[in-house]
UniProtKB/TrEMBL annotation, chain B:
It is found in: Nucleus. Keywords: Auxin signaling pathway, Nucleus, Ubl conjugation pathway. This is Transport inhibitor response 1 domain-containing protein. Its main location: nucleus. Residues 20-58 form the COI1 F-box domain. The lineage of its organism: Eukaryota, Viridiplantae, Streptophyta, Embryophyta, Tracheophyta.
Amino acid sequence: MLVMAECKGRDRSPSSSMDSSTHPALSTASAACWPTRPDLSTDLRLGLSLSTSLSSSSSLQAAESIPSMPSRNQVLLSWPPIKPFLRSALAASASRRRRQQTLFVKVYMEGLPIGRKLDLLLLDGYDSLLVKLCNMFKTPITYADVYQQQVPGVKAAHFLTYEDQDGDWMMVGDVPWNLFLTSVKKIRITRTDKC
Amino acid sequence: MGRGVGSRSGGGAAQPPWHSLPDEVWEHAFSFLPAAADRGAAAGACRGWLRAERRSRRRLAVANCYATSPRDAVERFPSVRAAEVKGKPHFADFGLVPPAWGAEAAPWVAAAADGWPLLEELSFKRMVVTDECLEMIAASFRNFQVLRLVSCEGFSTAGLAAITEGCRNLRELDLQENYIEDCSSHWLSSFPESFTSLETLNFSCLDGEVNFAVLERLVTRCHNLKTLKLNNAIPLDKVASLLRKAPHIVELGTGKFSADYHPDLFAKLEAAFAGCKSLRRLSGAWDAVPDYLSAFYGVCEGLTSLNLSYATVRGPELIKFISRCKNLQQLWVMDLIEDHGLAVVASTCSKLQELRVFPSDPFGAGQVLLTERGLVDVSASCPMLESVLYFCRRMTNEALITIAKNRPNFTCFRLCILEPRTPDYITQQSLDAGFSAIVESCKGLRRLSVSGLLTDLVFKSIGEHADRLEMLSIAFAGNSDLGLHYILSGCKSLKKLEIRDCPFGNKPLLANAAKLETMRSLWMSSCSLTLGACRQLAQKMPRLTVEIMNDPGRACPLDALPDESPVEKLYVYRTIAGPRSDTPDYVQIV
């Protein structure tokens, strides 16, 4: 990307109050090159709903047209130079448009021949997906990220996998939510002892 | 200066020399000089004129609230009736200035309350205005008439209630893009039933509900109401009712103009608009309801200003609408209008003076078909076009050169190519040639924003040719210190310079330190500045305030940091008041 090439690796520590690893869009390696993080505190004050959790429903992401990769410009909340009122109006109208769209995928549980269908656009992120599926199938399920930090004593019998555009079966949870939405075709709840 | 005047006296009677004419005569003479710059020049002529001018000054504009102390301003100009004060730097609009930076309106209101009891108009832009400020305004000025708040924050509807209740002679309440806390206080109901002087009411930025019956009664009894800008809480059918009560309206903001299509509602709207023969300016957050657009057709011909920057209307309906607006002078629109829409504007709106095109999908992939073509067409066919703000995704030097040739009369040219450092998409070269053509051709250019891939050379052109340029905005441009040096050593009339994400360092700043005192302010963020240079600058130029902004989460005392420490944000401005004392933790004055 053009701007990445410009980033001359100035050795100054990120002078931002937010750690880049807590924001899903920044957890990709390329973003680590940015000399500074934009000032999210201003945006919080301006009422844009930004959440730092993995299942982020930030207005940033609301402003995209699904399905599309979060563009590099989203890393810079102060660019392009549009005023906050216009910014939030665009985010609101984009999220209204998003609500009119659907992304239904088939969900199969291993061992059950009949699958279910789920509109992923109604969900905020991985956490909501998990909760929804646990309710649908009445069993504890986990996914890649959470699996790493399992609470002792709680052992899920199933974990989540999905089929992507290439036909490969992947662990759910590795990529940012929006990227997941663009590549998921089917979801499969696999038994833990299988893997 | 006037040396000959005394000697031109006729007859034998002794004429007093001009300089002993009583001050009131000069004050009267100066009242014919409306422009502040002219008055300033007159005041500089001699002590007598200085005295007369400052005592008769009625309108005061303070472009930087920290350039002087409020008390000094009030003392120097004791007869002011209308004051405008601006606070935060322009880049605060884009989130580059953290919260609680300063720019409190309270000291200004307090000083005005003491020194300007006859104050009639107050306008604040990018400042923190509290409810206490509003209460003080309502209580202090007997004849208060105009309150204008633009991009301010810190107040609530309770403060507004103090104004509406207390200001018996209020003519204008103009709230533009402020953050207003909704305390559900019935500010609108606080206008007394006997109150009828309102001419302008703009509450478009207010989030909450208003009591419609109260609004309707207010609109009905204020016969001089010319400007009414509603917020999103007013539904479409109510808009129609209001228009029937205020058919003399000149400026209308419809709020959220959206509803399911219903023929009755359509008929109601059409009839209401047909009655508005004086309507000239129209705006609103039109939410893709093409079916209702034709209800406006009756007013299109008379419109001089159309603000659709919050409207997601697109396609043929939009174009059909605009093609009826033959007298448009000002058009603000989303890029949903696309190139072919702008071609229609070009052929229809021969009186167009100002065009702004905003991005509907700034973070997306870019499926809107708005390119350089649209701007070229408009610049070719609209001979009075002088002000442009254009967001697009691609540009060529050829287009810019053509635009420059077509429209040497530009006074404001702001081009924002969405992706930083985008080159000419055909030749892959920088856009130096294009922007150089603009500054060479448009000799009256006062404001310029550049974007796309640019080297130091474009700044050489700007420095050399942009003699009347007062405000310049630069982002993601240039290759070295030279770029900044060209600007600071040229640009004779430069007042405001704002720069972000450019590889400009310390040398040009220090080499051109004196220039900074001729300017109102300089903003530099994400450049290559270090603390040492800022310290040197501050030492060299005592009449400048040099502010450094650190990351709010890490307030570190400046004294502890070495000279090589990078400076993330720098804001320098001239002031006669010395360093301000209200800086938050993260701002340090060197």
